[in-house]
Amino acid sequence: MEVVIVPDAAAGGELIASAIADLVVRKPDALLGVATGSTPLPIYTALTARVRGGLDVSRLRVCQLDEYVGLPKGHPESYRATVLREVVEPLGLPEEHFFGPDGSAADIQGACEDYDRALAAAGGVDLQILGIGTDGHIGFNEPCSSLASRTRIKTLTEQTRVDNARFFDNDIDQVPHHVITQGIGTILDARHLVLLATGANKADAVAATVEGPVASLVPASALQLHPHATVVVDEAAATGLKLADYFRATYAAKPDWQGI
């Protein structure tokens, strides 16, 4: 995989936004897979600035990585509502250009299968944005998830529910127990995977992902199997990389036109 070390989160956001802008120019109706949480926000901020500067994203389509199960449609803390606030609306996209799994469906397993079919029918994800957990998880694929897994329902760990309670008035009883997540196999179907990691607390997970063996214990290590995976990390998140100097030199020598 390609590893790019940047000074800080803002620089990482700018770099990835540039890759998305290049994609949109090449393929105006590209399908962009987005992630929630604080890590990808610099990407969306930088991409919005490009749109305000004249980048035409009117045909861009957006899809979700995961969704809570059991929240009513329109709940402000659903991941659908979050992506609408943080991505779709700032970019000025019509809501019909955005889709994701139905976490309120009566048949959740059917909803998972429907979502994989919808991704395929849309032509597949062109670029999928990913974050990483401190334990190496991507999406809600926790350690020991199958590397061939498809979109499915997962049970949230108690710690994850505690961590997410801040979005639910600090009331853990309001936090759902289950989520729908793209499986690792589904994620690997995307044409370009771009993982952004920032902060020293992600250093061990980044090192295990990039330099460790491919193992279900570190779900993000599956990116090593992908033909076009890019890992963008700030200096703090790069502190565990034995080959950090090599990665810096390799990217510095890359032609300006090549991008990521």
Give a topology summary.
Elements: E1 2-6, H1 9-26, E2 31-34, H2 41-52, E3 61-64, E4 66-68, H3 79-91, E5 98-99, H4 108-121, E6 127-130, E7 152-155, H5 158-164, E8 178-181, H6 184-188, E9 192-197, H7 203-211, E10 229-234, H8 244-252
Parallel strand pairs: 1-10, 2-3, 2-6, 3-5, 6-9, 9-10
Antiparallel strand pairs: 4-8, 7-8
Keywords summarizing the entry:
260 residues, three-stranded antiparallel sheet, seven-stranded parallel sheet, single chain, 33% helix, Rossmann fold, alpha/beta
Describe the structure concisely for a colleague.
The protein is an alpha/beta fold and 260 residues long. It has helices at residues 9-26, 41-52, 79-91, 108-121, 158-164, 184-188, 203-211, 244-252; strands at 2-6, 31-34, 61-64, 66-68, 98-99, 127-130, 152-155, 178-181, 192-197, 229-234. The chain contains eight helices and ten strands.
Structure notes:
- Pfam families: Glucosamine_iso (PF01182).
- GO terms for molecular function: glucosamine-6-phosphate deaminase activity.
- Its EC number is 3.5.99.6.
- The mean pLDDT is 96.
- By secondary structure, the chain is an alpha/beta fold.
- The chain has one domain: Rossmann fold, CATH 3.40.50.
- Strand 2, helix 2 and strand 3 (61-64) form a beta-alpha-beta unit.
- The chain has a seven-stranded parallel β-sheet, sandwiched between helices. A three-stranded antiparallel β-sheet has the order 4-8-7, covered by helices on one side.
- It is built from eight helices and ten strands.
